[in-house]
Every structure is written in structure tokens, then in C-alpha cells.
Amino acid sequence: MKDNGRILEVRDLYKDFSGLEVLAGVSFQVAQGERHAVIGPNGAGKTTLFNVITGKYKPSGGSILFQGRDITGRPPHQLCRMKISRSFQITNAFQELTVFENVRSGVRCLHGLRYHFFRRVDRDVAVNRRTEELLHLVGLGSVADAPVSTLSYGQQRALEIALTLSTDPELILLDEPTAGMTREETAEAIQLIDRVTRGKTLIIIEHDMDVVFSLADRISVLHYGRILASDRPHVIRDDQRVKDAYLGEG
Ligand SMILES: Nc1ncnc2c1ncn2[C@@H]1O[C@H](COP(=O)(O)OP(=O)(O)OP(=O)(O)O)[C@@H](O)[C@H]1O
User: Fold this and answer.
1) How far is the CA of 45 from the centre of ligand 1 (A)?
2) Range of the domain at 99
3) Are 219 and 159 contained in the same domain?
4) Least confident residue range of 16-20, 158-162, 210-214, 245-249
5) The domain spanning residue 8 has which CATH number?
6) Is 225 close to ligand 1, i.e. is its CB under 6 Å away?
7) What whole-number distance in Å separates Cα of residue 244 and Cα of residue 246?
């Protein structure tokens, strides 16, 4: 299944919006089990890249291979079944439902597909057990019965991560998971992401360089819709082109 240890290969990807070329030939690879950060200035095309990889938008050119299979242009629900999952903004969660109910709906979706031959009661037990496991994993066990609307900001972002994990993905894409967090919340989020992505492959878009350099095994720098450099963190840190374009001398 694996293509020389690669789980994802993006080849010469293009995307334009009514003539505005946002991705202009993006190529990079992600190895199985790697934590890969995508960094770059505002408007560089990072979220668009995620949207194309996860099927929200079709690219105008190029291809995407997941575990050696061409997934270019496939819709999100197919990619979800193939074990690719991206973070949802918390606005996608049902605010009046409890934390438990939200995560259970994601888990149920997966179990409905996988355990359709089980008796309903057995399936419900399995779904509830998995939901509890996920809530404990992300540290939300104590607020399982609270409505989402009552959670703190940090807890809402942890719920986002639980929802992303609810489909049991192999490849996890997180878009700025620490945006808007305090220093303490960010430090906790780094530990959480580290813990929950063990044994999986992670691609993360992040502006906070503490998060990037704490988590990433490799970093790709997106600049004007192209990959300026893709390498290990210490190489990226010393790359003069990257310093000029994004990191600065600091
Ligand atoms: N659906 C869309 N329609 C038109 N233009 C879009 C659309 N989505 C993104 N863009 C444009 O594409 C460019 C890149 O946006 P994108 O959100 O991918 O950048 P980014 O690197 O994620 O930026 P940031 O770091 O600020 O989140 C921007 O100029 C944006 O306005």
C-alpha cells in the first residue's frame, strides 16, 4: 500500500479562483508517521492547499496520491472513508448538544459503515465506548455532559481535535489548531496534539513557530503558491530564502 514509505504525495498542484492563481505548482511529500508543518505568509495558499487535498475544491491541475492511490478531486466523504480527516471549525459542532453527543455523532458515522452487521444494541455499546475513550484522550472526560456552548476556548479547540479523530483517521490535517490561544493553552495543545497523533501522520498549518518547531519532523514553506523549501526543521531554520521570505532573522 505504501509508496516507499510515503503516505501522501502532492504533485504539481494548481488551483485558481476566477483567474487568481493561489496554488501554482505545489509539490511535496509526506512520509508515513511523519508530522509535517506547512508554514508561510498570510494568503500564501495554505488553507487552499488543505481544501484541495481534502476534496473541498478540485484542483485546476496536478495530482494527489494517498498511499499510492490517486485521490485527486475525490469528494470529502470518500476521503473520510479512506482515513483522511481534517479539523472542523468549532462552528461546525452543534452548540446546544453536549460534548459527548457531538463526538458520538462522528463516531457513529464511522461505526455505521464498519459495523453495519452488528446488532444495534452492540453497536451502540461500541460507539459509546469509543466516544468515551476519545473524550478522555483529549482531556474532555469531565465535561462530557456539558453543552458545547459552555466550554472554554481551549476546550472547544480540544473538541475540534476529538471530532477530527472520531473517524479514526490515518492522515490528520489540522488548520491552525492553536490560533487565538494563550501561551498556556498553546503549550497544552502541543502536548495534546503530540499525544493523539502518535502512530498517525499529521499535516499541520501553523503560524506559531514554537508549535511548529516543537511538533514538526519536516516543514514545507509555501510562498506565493509554491513550495519554497521542504526539509527538516533545522535546515528550514537556516535556509536564507526562508528567512528572507518568512521567518526573518529573529
Ligand atoms: N473560495 C475562494 N474564492 C476566492 N478566493 C479565495 C477562496 N479561498 C481562498 N481564496 C484566496 O486565495 C488566497 C490564499 O488564501 P488561503 O486562505 O489559502 O491562504 P493562507 O495561506 O491559508 O492564509 P492565512 O495564513 O491568512 O490563513 C487569498 O488571496 C484568498 O483570498
Assistant:
1) 6
2) 88-168
3) no
4) 245-249
5) 3.40.50.300
6) no
7) 6
